[in-house]
Amino acid sequence: MARTRLPSPSLCCLALTFSALFGAGPCVEVTVPQDHVMQERGASVELPCHYKTSVNKNFILEWRFAPGSAAPGQGEPILYFTNDKLYKPSSQAKRLSFLHNPPTMGDATLQLANVRPSDNGTYICEVNNPPDFYGSGSGLIHFTVLMPPSTPVCKGTEYTRIGGDATLTCSSVEGVPAPIYTWSRVDSKTSLPLANMVQNDQTGKLQRTNLSLAFSGTYQCVASNQFGHVSCQVTVNVAGTGEAGVIAGAVIGVLLVLLLLGAAAIYLFWYRKEESQSTVTGNDIREDATAPGISDASLQRHGSDPGSHFLKQPMSRPESASTTKSRLNMVV
After folding, report:
1. What span, in angstroms and rounded, lies between the C-alpha atoms of 264 and 241?
2. Contact at 8 Å (CB) between 51 and 28?
3. What whole-number distance in Å separates Cα of residue 318 and Cα of residue 118?
4. Which of 1, 104, 258, 314 has the fewest CB atoms within 10 Å, i.e. is most exposed?
5. Integer Cα distance of 77 and 123 in angstroms
6. Rounded CA gap, 52 and 80, in Å?
7. Are 137 and 127 in contact (CB under 8 A)?
8. Which of the residues in the chain have pLDDT under 70?
9. pTM above 0.70, yes or no
């Protein structure tokens, strides 16, 4: 790792010459690493910063932090030293310290303990020491927290038919450097055949085409980098045409049975309802019903009142006494 970035000698000499001619103080030189500083999550890291100037009562040393991809100009103070006092105004205060305290001997290296993903970003080391206004008074350090991949999530086509395709995906939310994804069959000792397969180890996508029954099984994705590896699984089921037909037939058969049962229940319900209504109607006696043995024709001849025929019959007169006597004499 390159630890220093020195200002151009010609510029520094030019600044020194200018300060000598006009009575100004010497230039301030701050050197920091040129490359990214990286450390594994949970460990401690040193952010090197060295300076050259004559420390006096106006000496101010400040560290600022711009999180993530924020511009350095948006950095907020996290630690500064002035008048022999140290101030820590940031949420990182308990984890921040100087490698050499007090930092008045040219070494302003910052220590950060128990680093975490939120510590990713740009750190600015700046030295102010009026009247030393010339030279490079600040330096930028880009810091990255390294971490193993988080447990990935496996998704994709779980059911398909013979000749169909399947697409599986695998992705981890965390992981620095970016994890590499590798797919394999859990229930097979051989690696996945390259035929009919497209695998992207950067995105974690696996595509398989023209599947057969042999492709059914459990597939495992492993996400890995230099700091660890984790995995997830997904099961793919390939069904044959015959099996699909049997399943479809069974489903249709069950539906037909349910329809027949429903129709039978409706029929029984309405039949019993009609039967109960006819029973009640048969037991009713109508007041204008015709008596048995009397036809409608006879009713029409004798009037509308069925009893009028019998009431209007003339009563037979009793035979006279003379008639009766003559009949007795003949017998004698």
Report:
1. 35
2. yes
3. 139
4. 314
5. 10
6. 17
7. yes
8. 1-26, 133-136, 190, 241-249, 275-332
9. no
Q: Output the pLDDT for position 272.
A: 74
Cα–Cα dist 143/1, whole Å: 13
pLDDT attached to residue 114: 97
Q: Which tokens is 261 given?
A: 């049962």
What the block records as the tokens of 162 is 């013979």
Q: Find, among 43, 37, 44, 41, the residue nearest to 147 by Cα.
A: 41
Q: What is the pLDDT of residues 113-147, one digit of tens each?
A: 999 999 999 999 999 988 776 666 899 999 999 99
183: CB partners within 8 A, 6+ apart: 168, 170, 192, 199, 206, 219, 220, 221
Residue with structure tokens 């193993």? 148
Tokens of residue 232, six digits: 């997830």
CB atoms under 10 Å from CB of 78, counted, come to: 21
What pLDDT score does 25 carry? 52
- Looking at residue 34, its amino acid is Q
Residues in the chain: 332
**Residues with Cβ within 8 Å of residue 83, at least 6 apart in sequence:** 57
Please give the pLDDT value at position 47: 98
